[in-house]
Specification:
Number of strands: 0
Order of helices and strands: HHHHHHHHHH
Radius of gyration: 21 Å
Structural class: mainly alpha
Distance between the termini: 53 Å
Shape: elongated
Helix content: over 70%
Oligomer: single chain
Strand content: under 5%
Length: about 270
């Protein structure tokens, strides 16, 4: 009798989250290898931090009696999240309309892994940059004065804000007819939200007529929450407001994404 050899069974395909992690790693590699993306999401916000500190540090301290970096550093961290929306949306727009997505569709790969991988990679990028900005902001005096738990809560809140931004980026990529439209959709709203927030100055410094709008601004609620978690101050209301904003916007984006992404998968 002759022995019969059997071919080894093929290895099972990785699960959805493993595939998403691989695509997320690809997203991070593209980011690290792109000098323009590094400059726009990391260099410009840091430049803004030190320029504004050099210009307004003494004025704000003498007028309001607090160190300007206390609220400016959290704002700059949030700006890095905002700045990731446009670049991430354009990159995802190209991916889902190019041969990359078409190749994945004929492979044993979850279609959803490309979407989740993009969001996962961008979220890791946002958190990594937030940590670097917080460390560099130590030079002009930014400190975590509320303990380790509060510092961890600080970055959890940044992650929630980042999740909202990555959700908006996906919706923009799925909705825009071509990439230049994305920047027009993103730039003005994010600029208005940051300028009309308590990151540049406390609410009391704004005209009384617009203070309710300033206070309800999601950037203001996030800044106040991050200030409370780093220096100290009111926490309950700003944290709950930030969670409500991020959860609400992310949920709405998830609904829009599910409807639009289904069309790309079917097409």
């Amino acid at each position: 009798m002759t022995a019969t050899s059997t071919a080894p069974a093929p290895a099972p395909a990785p699960g959805l989250w493993a595939q998403s992690a691989l695509i997320g790693g690809r997203t991070l590699k593209h980011f690290v290898r792109s000098p323009m993306m590094l400059l726009s999401t990391f260099g410009f916000p840091l430049l803004q931090l030190f320029m504004l500190l050099a210009t307004f540090k003494i004025i704000v301290h003498d007028t309001l009696g607090e160190s300007y970096v206390v609220r400016l550093a959290p704002l700059v961290i949030l700006i890095t999240s905002f700045s990731a929306i446009g670049s991430s949306a354009i990159a995802f727009w190209v991916d889902i309309r190019s041969g990359v997505f078409n190749r994945l569709r004929v492979m044993p790969v979850h279609a959803l892994s490309m979407l989740l991988g993009r969001m996962l990679g961008d979220l890791v990028r946002i958190l990594g940059i937030a940590v670097l900005v917080a460390l560099i902001a130590q030079l002009p005096g930014f400190r975590f004065r509320q303990g380790v738990a509060a510092a961890a809560g600080f970055f959890v809140l940044v992650a929630l804000f980042g999740l909202m931004c990555t959700s908006l980026a996906v919706v923009a990529a799925l909705s825009a007819p071509y990439p230049p439209v994305i920047m027009r959709w993103v730039q003005m709203p994010t600029l208005a939200l940051t300028m009309l927030s308590t990151g540049y100055m406390p609410r009391e410094a704004f005209p009384s007529a617009i203070r309710p709008v300033i206070a309800a601004n999601p950037v203001s609620t996030a800044v106040e929450a991050l200030v409370g978690l780093s220096r100290g101050g009111p926490l309950l209301v700003p944290v709950l407001a930030t969670v409500a904003w991020t959860a609400g916007v992310s949920t709405l984006c998830a609904w829009v994404t599910a409807r639009r992404f289904r069309g790309f998968v079917a097409g």
